[in-house]
Amino acid sequence: MTINRKLPLVALRAFESAARCGRHGDAAEELSVTSGAISKHIAQLETFLGIRLFEGNRNRPRLTAEGQAFATSLSDAFEQIDAAVAAISRRDTGVLDVACIGTLAMRWLIPRLSGFSQLYPNYDVCLSTDGQRINRSVDVEILILPPDEAMGSECLPLFNELVGLVFASNLQERNISNEQKALSLPRLGTQTRPHAWTEWGRLTGRDLGPTRTTSRMFDHYHLTIEACLNGLGSMIAPLHLIGEEVRSGKLIAPWGFVESGYSYAVRSERPNHRKNSAFIQWLQDETANMRTPIQENFAALQN
After folding, report:
1. Does the chain have fewer CB atoms within 10 Å around its N or its C terminus?
2. Across the strands, what pairs with 264?
3. 236 with 163: CB under 8 angstroms?
4. CA–CA separation, 142 vs 129, rounded Å?
5. The whole model's pTM is what?
6. Alpha carbon 68 to chain centroid distance?
7. pLDDT in tens, 99-147
8. How crowded is the C-beta side of 36, counted as CA atoms within 13 Å?
9. What's the Cα-to-Cα distance from 17 to each of 24, 28, 33, 71, 269, rounded to whole Å?
10. For residues 137 and 269, what is the distance between their CA atoms, to the nearest angstrom?
11. What is the spatial distance between Cα 179 and Cα 184, in angstroms, rounded to a whole number?
């Protein structure tokens, strides 16, 4: 067996990082070098191999077909090296990049992350919550799939979303039923789910009336929830975001909850990587009770 000791290992690492990150600048930041150094290493590698790895202009280069195939093989090879180093040194550490929308991170994921950290103290979870398609590669991504979008084969299901009409308990009135009160309050809405009231009316078979519209709109769910908690009106809220408030009695859900048609899933390009696998399994454990029937789920909150 002939071993080529002249392989340009630094250039291979630079190319793998640039291909994975999508931009030379991001690769430079990851490897603590300049963008010019990344470009120089890639040019040297292309000369060494005799093929083009990137094409297009310098500001927005894209992988060639050969470059894409080569990048995939290199990423797998570097992962094997990382695993070998972790095994020989008897340690398993690293940053775990997780992407999800901000409200889910704030109201559901972050309050539970200490549990994951206790199980896996060597992993440092880094959250991306910009709500847009992540430009750089992440280890694990939590997705929200609308009713008309099928779950891809690369995804694992977490739970189906339940929604219900809720309002603050301090708005209760002795002489008015909760149902009457809920429909008389100003209706709070969210720009990211502008048709929530209409969808809820259809799901529950309730006629909300042609003249009634959402009276107060907020940019994000967490703002709408805060407005609702502070008595500014009623809202259609996902159960997993306000479950603790319903359980504690801060919010009242007079009609319970129904399936909205939205579903949550987890995706990883490298699900067998040790840290990714650990986080995915933890997510599935945390959401196991959210996959129970609606009646049991809501009854648990009432107890």
Report:
1. N
2. 144, 159
3. yes
4. 10
5. 0.66
6. 25
7. 999 899 999 999 999 999 999 998 989 998 865 444 457 889 999 999 9
8. 0
9. 8, 8, 12, 9, 15
10. 9
11. 9
